[in-house]
Amino acid sequence: MKVAAGPGDDTGSPKEPEQVEVSVVMPCLNEADGVATCIAKALGAIAEMGVSGEVVVVDNGSTDSSAEIAQQAGARVVHERRRGYGAAYQRGFNEARGRYIVMGDADDTYDFTEIERFITPLREGYELVMGDRLKGNILPGAMPWSHRWIGNPILSGLLRVFFHTRISDSHCGMRSFTREAFVKMDLRTSGMEFASEIVVKALRVGLKIHEIPITYHPRIGESKLSGLRDAWRHVRFMLLFSPSYLFLLPGLLLMATGGLLVLALAGGPREILGLRWDYHPLLFGCSMLILGFNLVVFDIAAKAFSMGSGLANPRQWLRRLLDSFSLEKGLILGGLVFVAGVGIEAKIVYEWIRNGYPELMAVRGVTIGMTAMVLGVQTVFASFLVGLMQIKHR
After folding, report:
1. Is residue 393 scored above 90 in pLDDT?
2. pTM score of the predicted model
């Protein structure tokens, strides 16, 4: 069995495999009570499999003797200065030399004697294997009721809605994947959202995913989780990585509702549902139209950035839109809308002067004209922004 010890540097890219079949990577932050047990289980499982392997423990700033204990237990210890779950794992994956990589916490919540169950599907052609605690066995005291019945189902449900995955336990911390899959996923986040990023990136690059039920044990030592903060990091990542749910859908809804109100009331007040609808609904409609347009522009800009940076693969409709887009077209369209708004305002001013400066009550016309001017200016500047991102993309 190939086991090395010693710290690496703080930067680096994925290393070439060196005749090691299995690398077990464990992040470690003050896990002196449990890390040796986890290492012993992992090394024992590798020995029983009869393959070459290693255990890589990533010390993430421990103030206890975790690093020394891990090294004495037979692990190769590396150090990562950047704090965070994702930062530690990224360092460990980069340092790992195995063809297959198994990840799990160093607190004995995951049973490393089951490593072979995570390797066999990879040998059969799967690229990512996920543990499933919910369909497995959660031992008493292993998971707070709020995590089991509220947090985990909600976060896993959001992933299923946003990214159309069928994974039932998206935040199980014991997983395995091939080295090639790690390179394909191009993982980047540094915090607890790293668990969500693995699932999202795996889906985006089309990895073949398999789930296996596992037993989840009570942890040894003190928990490092911060419930609400860590949950928010997952939700924030999902929203940022799927901007349609953050920008496009609310934007289209606001634009449609606002546009209907403006069209209905542009010609004058109306009786709708037994109520008189006039200036106030019109003002709300114009505000909704402007806000909705902004959100749609943000969505297009976010997806244009994602295309340029390689973070995501936008849908075909956006590719066609951006391929046909040009700065000049955007400037012309925005200019025409702006001029139309100016024309409405100029007509109001002309009528006011011609009638001898009476009390000005052209609320409807002023509102619609100003809305058109705002939308026109926003279109012009949005065209510059998207054009800039397109230059980067090309």
Report:
1. no
2. 0.67
